[in-house]
UniProtKB/TrEMBL annotation:
GO terms for biological process: cell wall organization; peptidoglycan biosynthetic process; proteolysis; regulation of cell shape. Pathway: Cell wall biogenesis; peptidoglycan biosynthesis. It catalyses: [GlcNAc-(1->4)-Mur2Ac(oyl-L-Ala-gamma-D-Glu-L-Lys-D-Ala-D-Ala)](n)-di-trans,octa-cis-undecaprenyl diphosphate + beta-D-GlcNAc-(1->4)-Mur2Ac(oyl-L-Ala-gamma-D-Glu-L-Lys-D-Ala-D-Ala)-di-trans,octa-cis-undecaprenyl diphosphate = [GlcNAc-(1->4)-Mur2Ac(oyl-L-Ala-gamma-D-Glu-L-Lys-D-Ala-D-Ala)](n+1)-di-trans,octa-cis-undecaprenyl diphosphate + di-trans,octa-cis-undecaprenyl diphosphate + H(+); Preferential cleavage: (Ac)2-L-Lys-D-Ala-|-D-Ala. Also transpeptidation of peptidyl-alanyl moieties that are N-acyl substituents of D-alanine. The keyword Chaperone does not apply. The chain crosses the membrane at residues 21-41. Its main location: membrane. GO terms for molecular function: penicillin binding; peptidoglycan glycosyltransferase activity; serine-type D-Ala-D-Ala carboxypeptidase activity. In the C-terminal section; belongs to the transpeptidase family. In the N-terminal section; belongs to the glycosyltransferase 51 family. Residues 424-678 form the Penicillin-binding protein transpeptidase domain. It comes from Flavobacterium saliperosum. The keyword Cytoplasm does not apply. This is Penicillin-binding protein 1A. GO terms for cellular component: outer membrane-bounded periplasmic space; plasma membrane.
Length: 766
């Protein structure tokens, strides 16, 4: 008979093995996390790095009216504080990305267990704090599982440290500041500006939901490319907000029914507002960082990473009006220019030989980007030249937008030489603050700055410097008379090597005229007689005191403007007259601060007395004659039928305006500089090459090419009551006794395309 074994089986060895294995595994996990925190699996952020996370923060360029007009960046990131975030954006973020955000300390245990048990099929378990840790210190990391596990451990460790270091509000703000929303937008502030043209605090509920929806995969949920997909994802976020009781069902359905309406304005270095000014500022900052190193001895500031704020004198509204004025006029005038070039076999060049044209084209090819790249790659010169004859697909600039075309690079150079260019600057005479800076017609296609870089022949806009010298030295007044008659300066006088006999444009002479009328109509013989009396050296000295640094020959011909000067220097010089004889150096920066608001730089205004208040005011009254009945009088009247060619006529500006037109030799350069008591603006218009120009003076003169931009700009400024641009008379000095209101004959008809008196001289065209 078999025996039954009642002895209980001994499980103690298995229990011991289980607990042994458990403690080994538990200890291994502890050691794993310790090793990770000690940096054995790769560097970990220090306390200082957690306190000041290293992120690329864009430098902002801020206008005088508080608008960000541009940035310098590697990543277009501009941080915001939690207080600047709308409540519904925060609620949408928490409801969608981390429902238990306010309950955990960096790691969501419940979510982690759920993700582990479902092997990830029910979604991930990264908290907002973990996502921030990844964004700040690790990025996406490796797809290789062991490395991925190590990265996850690092995220947990960093997340718990971040939770100890920052408040929940700070973590949310940090997180939204680090997210890449694609299309040049890094961080919620840049994204709000790029996609909707507004600050984060102004986002609506549905707009905030769109951004939160993008967080899942910004490239996939790109509203510019996949609007329907983004709309569906946005509606999921709105559903999550309802689920978490942040929205009622009715409000959810209301926002879900709304279409996404983008105001997509990607920010780039070559597009947007004040592009030429921003490039000028970039060059300034390159020098500034070398001269102003960090005080802690940690090298130079990086304008692309250190989040500086550059507060400028530019007014965003005036900048916009200046750019609009230039575009409105030149797009119109360009059509007239092209029409007049149709029968020109050497278009757009006039009066030069085929050999001279060839030299211009060769010089332009050698200055091109194509030549630079091919030359660096070692191509021989003849092969580079041949490449300019091969038709190539390209985008070209037109006044109706970019156009795709097939064109040889040589033909594209010739095409671009047809375009009329401009330089315009406006500044406050009393402060030197530059309010608008337009260096060209389109920075992407024409990167030469015609305000700060381009010195061009100024024509009759030089004459006020001569008249100021005469008034100061000879004690003349606007109503003093001078005889307009043929004049010859003999050989040897002031060192000239031949007789000089400048003529008036019509070949006619008016006889006795007063000084005010002579300047108003830019009479050349009067200018020649004045420089004969005061001498060219005195005029050069006056011009230098007015801030002009260009080389000016000490010759009588400067009386007619045979001098190259930049727009920037001309506007500053003219502003001296409006500022009662005190020269103010143009100033574009108010201050520079670091990302914490600490002041780094505050320029000291540069000024000097140039002339007495009486002389300055006398010059103002002289130049008022230009716009009252002289070459600039179309600012007040103008004939409407001609507005198709002279944009903006009539301007109907009836307030006191002091100004001067100018036209250079062969109509290559058209100028107008005009002033009211608290604003001076100067404009130059011409082609890149001086051989390309209007053949007829009625179209190529400053009153046609440049003055309309001034008129349109000022009209826009006056329509904006917030700008407070003066329409009052210039301030008269105390005890001023000079006679300035002279009798002038009534002008019966003002033709908007009348030829200026100061054009087409025999040798030097004003």
């Amino acid at each position: 008979m078999a025996q039954i074994n009642n002895k209980k089986e001994d499980f103690s060895p298995y229990v011991k093995k289980f607990w042994k294995l458990f403690f080994y595994c538990f200890g291994g996990v502890i050691l794993f996390f310790l090793f990770a925190s000690w940096g054995l699996f790769g560097s970990m952020p220090s306390f200082d790095e957690l306190e000041n996370p290293n992120s690329n923060v864009a430098t902002e360029i801020i206008s005088s009216d508080g608008v960000t007009i541009g940035k310098f960046y590697l990543e277009n990131r501009t941080p915001v504080k939690f207080a600047e975030l709308p409540d519904h954006l925060v609620k949408a973020l928490v409801a969608t990305e981390d429902e238990r955000f306010y309950e955990h300390s960096g790691i969501d245990t419940k979510g982690t267990l759920r993700a582990a048990l479902s092997l990830g099929s029910s979604g991930g378990a990264s908290t907002l704090t973990q996502q921030l840790a990844k964004n700040l210190f690790h990025g996406e990391g490796s797809k290789f599982l062991p490395f991925r596990i190590i990265q996850k451990a690092k995220e947990w460790i960093i997340a718990t440290k971040l939770e100890r270091q920052y408040t929940k509000k700070e973590i949310i703000a940090h997180y939204l500041n680090t997210v890449d929303f694609v299309n040049t937008a890094v961080g919620i502030r840049s994204a709000s500006k790029v996609y909707f043209g507004k600050e984060p605090k102004d986002l609506t509920v549905d707009e905030a939901a769109m951004f939160v929806g993008m967080l899942k995969n910004p490239s996939l949920f790109n509203p510019v490319r996949r609007l329907q997909k983004v709309t569906d994802r946005r509606n999921v976020v709105l559903h999550q907000m309802e689920k978490n009781k942040f929205l009622t069902k009715e409000r959810k359905e209301f926002f879900q029914a709304k279409p996404i309406v983008l105001k997509f304005t990607p920010e780039s270095h070559i597009e947007g507002s004040a592009t030429y000014f921003r490039e000028y500022l970039r060059d300034f900052m390159k020098k500034w960082v070398k001269e102003n190193p960090k005080k802690d001895g940690d090298g130079e500031y990086d304008i692309y990473r250190d989040g500086l704020k550059i507060y400028t004198t530019i007014d965003s509204r005036m900048q916009q009006y200046a750019e609009e004025a230039a575009s409105e006029h030149l797009a119109n005038l360009q059509g007239e220019f092209n029409k007049r070039q149709k029968d020109n076999p050497n278009a757009p060049f006039i009066g030069i030989t085929p050999a001279e044209t060839k030299l211009i084209m060769q010089r332009s090819m050698k200055n091109s980007e194509r030549w630079r790249i091919m030359n660096e790659k070692g191509f021989e010169e003849d092969k580079i030249v041949k490449s300019f004859e091969v038709p190539t697909k390209m985008k070209i600039f037109t006044w109706k937008g970019e156009k795709d075309t097939l064109m040889t690079p040589r033909d594209s150079i010739l095409y671009y030489k047809h375009f009329l260019q401009t330089g315009m600057m406006a500044m406050e005479p009393q402060t030197g603050h530059v309010k608008a800076w337009v260096g060209g017609i389109n920075y992407k296609h024409f990167q030469y700055d015609h305000v700060g870089q381009g010195a061009r022949q100024v024509g009759s806009t030089f004459k006020p410097f001569l008249y100021a010298t005469a008034i100061e030295q000879l004690k003349m007044s606007p109503c003093d008379s001078i005889y307009d008659s043929p004049f010859t300066m003999p050989k040897g006088r002031y060192g000239i090597d031949a007789d000089w006999s400048p003529k008036n444009s019509t070949g006619n002479y008016r006889g006795m005229v007063n000084l005010k009328s002579a300047l108003a109509n830019s009479i050349n013989t009067v200018s020649a007689k004045l420089i004969d009396k005061v001498g060219p050296e005195a005029v050069v000295d006056m011009t230098k005191k007015l801030g002009v640094s260009s080389e000016i020959p000490v010759q009588p011909s400067i009386a007619l403007g045979a001098v190259d000067i930049t727009v920037e220097q001309m506007v500053a010089a003219f502003s001296t007259f409006a500022n009662q004889g005190v020269y103010m150096k143009p100033q574009v920066i108010v201050k520079i601060v670091d990302k914490n608001g600490v002041l780094l730089y505050e320029p000291v205004p540069e000024s000097r007395d140039v002339m007495s208040k009486d002389v300055a005011y006398t010059m103002i009254k002289l130049m008022e004659g230009v716009t009252e009945y002289g070459t600039g009088s179309r600012l007040r009247w103008g004939s409407a039928p001609e507005s198709a060619r002279v944009t903006g006529v009539p301007y109907n500006l009836r307030n006191p305006i002091a100004g001067k037109t100018g036209t250079s030799q062969n109509n290559s350069d058209g100028w107008f500089i005009g002033m009211v008591p608290n604003l001076a603006a100067g404009i130059w218009v011409g082609n890149e090459d001086r051989s390309a120009h209007f053949e007829q003076t009625n179209m190529g003169q400053g009153a046609t090419m440049a003055l309309p931009i001034w008129g349109i700009f000022m009209r826009k400024c006056y329509e904006d009551d917030n700008l407070n641009v003066s329409q009052k008379p210039f301030e008269k000095p105390e005890n001023y006794s000079v006679k300035v209101d002279c009798w002038v004959p009534k002008k019966a008809v003002v033709d908007s395309l009348a030829v200026e008196e100061d054009t087409q001289t025999e040798e030097f065209d004003f």
